[in-house]
Amino acid sequence: MESWRQWENFARAQELGQIGWWRMDTTRNILTWSAENYRIFGQPVGAPQTYETFLAAVHPDDRAYVHEKWIAALRGEPYDLEHRVLVDGQEKWVREKACLEFDAAGALLGGFGVTQDITDRKHAEIALQWTVRRNELLTRIAARLLQSSDVQGAVEELCADVMQFLDCQAFFNYLVAEESGRLHLNACAGIPEDRAREIEWLDYGVAICGAVARDRERIVAENVCASADPRTGLIASCGIKAYCCHPLMAQGRLMGTLSFGAKTRLAFNDDEIEVMQAVSQLVSMAMARLRMEQALLEADRRKDEFLATLAHELRNPLAPIRTGLLVLKRTGAQGPNAVRVQEMMERQVDHIVRLVDDLLEVSRIRSGKIELKRERLDLRDLMDQAIEASQQFLDANGVSLTVVRPEEPLMIDGDPVRLVQVIANLLSNAAKYTPSGGHAEIAARRVGSQAELTVADNGVGIPPDMLPHVFDLFAQVDRTLGRAQGGLGIGLALVRKLLRLHGGQVEARSDGPGKGSVFLVRLPLASAFAQGGPQREGGRSARRVLIIEDDDDVVHGLSMLLRAQGANVQTAYDGKRGVEAVQSFHPQVVFIDLGLEGMDGYEAARRIRALPEGRDAIIVALTRWGGETAREHVKKAGFDLHIAKPASMGDIERVLDFRR
Ligand code: ADP
């Protein structure tokens, strides 16, 4: 009875400890198992076992190792090992430990051993090791990105690291190409080169990466080869079976996509996807940081350049003034040359005052302190005043001026002082950048609902690559050219800013160096004078319009154009406030800048569409780029219309006439 109880306790201990015992009789090749051993190996208790049946249960990858250890054990080496077994196709881990048994005469009988089921411990260990390696990987990537001043270039190397860790065979990194509004392949691996060339450019919404860029949401694709989703065609054709693509986002702004693909298995698990997400976040942060650094460096460089020019420009007039003072001192204020000298000094002082005034104006506009004193004006009067102010300067430079004055009045709502300043700036540039003996022309006319004013000259012209930049602050084509009159590279920046505040725009045209330049200004005509103003289309005036845009000038200009069409306009300076405004204001039309800081335009549009108040609104994307592709791409992103900044009156009419 007692021994039976002992036996029962022993069996229970084995079961609780998941440790079975075994005895291998090598002389007869008979393997005896305890009940627990049968359980561990998943076999019916009592089924006869041999060394071969045991080996057959061992995981195929571990069989050679286990056999080797057993042979060594029979030679007297310790038998203590961990290996895998297969139970109903499932992998289990066991620890085996044994000692040899001999008969009384010392001949080898075989071995006695124990088998312990260590699956749980082993899985925890493997998971821990994986976590440690994952953390090492992410730390390595973060360090590399932090040290790198070329994040785009570093992507290839760090993705190779990720691929090795995750056992992936492909990756793709697309970046947003702002100028074209498309995605550009920055780096990839795992596909043939000619295939990579084919997919170098991608439109939003096309293939998985394009869809992720459009929706800003991760896409995970499993068993790609069997997928009916047409977006997976591209990756399937590269032999990829499991795929995961993340958007690269920082501060709500899309910068590109990063995706990984495996060709040897059908799906990624959650832990792997989490690693890809973490890598995407690290890359996004690094890109955003670098972008900010570059913008700061560029601003700093331009400021340095500007300070040097400023010093130069302020110093230039001082030399003749000093000479003048000397002359006056020597010859006396009443001397024969005195009047000429005084006039010269006056001109130089005027020049300094003009420079300083320009400077003050820029800082006033920048800090938003400028206020337009609007009144109804005839553009022809503004032309006259500007010509009067510039005539002397044109004459002094030997540049003749033709004036094409329209017959009809061109009435606009604006600040006369600022608008005269705009026209005079363009005229004085024509004088500055046209050699003596050259010619300039100023003309104005009505075009639809706008007044168009052109200032043309046959002077030094502008190289094509500089055309888009002449309106940037401190931009100058050639700092050594036209220096006789001096300038700080802020005149045209002021022109553009002031025109935008009036809802107008300016454009520079030139066939290149030596071919002269044309500056074309467009201003909205006051509504009653515009051909077919709001009265024509009764429906337009009733519209509630919300503008979500962080650039003051654009907001100002757009609101003016919209109000000229009788719209009721509200503005919000970021995406979050924009979404809130939709709920309170119920706009029929919403303009959204795609490049908003914080929540970007795409996200704002998505949230607005999800609101009951925004479901039927006409949502218009405001972008810096134009063209068919851009239009297509914002359309795919759920916008009804697309407008390239700055908007023209024609654009506004198109929007207000649009019906969903
Ligand atoms: P600046 O003080 O240098 O004249 P602006 O902002 O008025 O600055 O003009 C910026 C640059 O644009 C000038 O430095 C010049 O290179 C170019 N530019 C402006 N107007 C003309 C013109 N009429 N013809 C040729 N180049 C021009």
From TrEMBL:
<keyword id="KW-0597">Phosphoprotein</keyword>
<dbReference type="InterPro" id="IPR013655">
    <property type="entry name" value="PAS_fold_3"/>
</dbReference>
<keyword id="KW-0808">Transferase</keyword>
<dbReference type="InterPro" id="IPR003594">
    <property type="entry name" value="HATPase_dom"/>
</dbReference>
<dbReference type="InterPro" id="IPR000014">
    <property type="entry name" value="PAS"/>
</dbReference>
<feature type="domain" description="Response regulatory">
    <location>
        <begin position="544"/>
        <end position="660"/>
    </location>
</feature>
<dbReference type="InterPro" id="IPR036890">
    <property type="entry name" value="HATPase_C_sf"/>
</dbReference>
<feature type="domain" description="PAC">
    <location>
        <begin position="75"/>
        <end position="130"/>
    </location>
</feature>
<dbReference type="InterPro" id="IPR005467">
    <property type="entry name" value="His_kinase_dom"/>
</dbReference>
<dbReference type="Pfam" id="PF00512">
    <property type="entry name" value="HisKA"/>
</dbReference>
<dbReference type="InterPro" id="IPR003018">
    <property type="entry name" value="GAF"/>
</dbReference>
<dbReference type="InterPro" id="IPR003661">
    <property type="entry name" value="HisK_dim/P_dom"/>
</dbReference>
<dbReference type="InterPro" id="IPR004358">
    <property type="entry name" value="Sig_transdc_His_kin-like_C"/>
</dbReference>
<feature type="domain" description="Histidine kinase">
    <location>
        <begin position="309"/>
        <end position="527"/>
    </location>
</feature>
<dbReference type="Pfam" id="PF02518">
    <property type="entry name" value="HATPase_c"/>
</dbReference>
<protein>
    <recommendedName>
        <fullName>histidine kinase</fullName>
        <ecNumber>2.7.13.3</ecNumber>
    </recommendedName>
</protein>
<dbReference type="Pfam" id="PF08447">
    <property type="entry name" value="PAS_3"/>
</dbReference>
<feature type="modified residue" description="4-aspartylphosphate">
    <location>
        <position position="593"/>
    </location>
</feature>
<keyword id="KW-0418">Kinase</keyword>
<dbReference type="InterPro" id="IPR036097">
    <property type="entry name" value="HisK_dim/P_sf"/>
</dbReference>
<dbReference type="InterPro" id="IPR011006">
    <property type="entry name" value="CheY-like_superfamily"/>
</dbReference>
<dbReference type="InterPro" id="IPR001789">
    <property type="entry name" value="Sig_transdc_resp-reg_receiver"/>
</dbReference>
<dbReference type="Pfam" id="PF13185">
    <property type="entry name" value="GAF_2"/>
</dbReference>
<dbReference type="Pfam" id="PF00072">
    <property type="entry name" value="Response_reg"/>
</dbReference>
<dbReference type="InterPro" id="IPR000700">
    <property type="entry name" value="PAS-assoc_C"/>
</dbReference>
<dbReference type="InterPro" id="IPR035965">
    <property type="entry name" value="PAS-like_dom_sf"/>
</dbReference>
<dbReference type="InterPro" id="IPR029016">
    <property type="entry name" value="GAF-like_dom_sf"/>
</dbReference>
